[in-house]
What we know:
By secondary structure, this protein is an all-alpha fold.
Amino acid sequence: MNSVDLLVNHDMKGGLSGVESLLDEGDPHAHALAGFVYECGGKGVEFDYAKAKYCYGFAVDAVGSIAAALGIARIYFYGKDVERDREYTHFMYLSLLEVVDESIAKVGLARVFLDEAWTEKSGLARAESYLRNRGSLGYMSASCWLLSYEKGKGDLSPPFFLR
């Protein structure tokens, strides 16, 4: 079984050990994968956000890994072993959008603006525009955040599910 198969089967320790030689060789894609394993933890691997951040950073610097950039954004948005930093998260997602039209980055930006909306109402309109983006609607998280947003506005009605 290869490392990806092991990870799919939730054997994080086996998956990580399968890419160790690639990590030693400085393979940026192996670093992106290892970052995910350290961020998520799982069978045989403890959460280690410092290692995750290092691995993600290596992959971003080496090849501009989109998955690794999204991982760094998550770490800073949720404050996983770092100080929570919405501005940096915002910067990371916008940087991704400058390079590639990545819908999950739009969902992330919407989440940042929804979070800011607790103190700043102008963020809600920006969040809604990112959530209603055609590409974003393919993500379950976008649909859930949009549902939550519409419920908060009082605009939730049965036709929401038919759109």
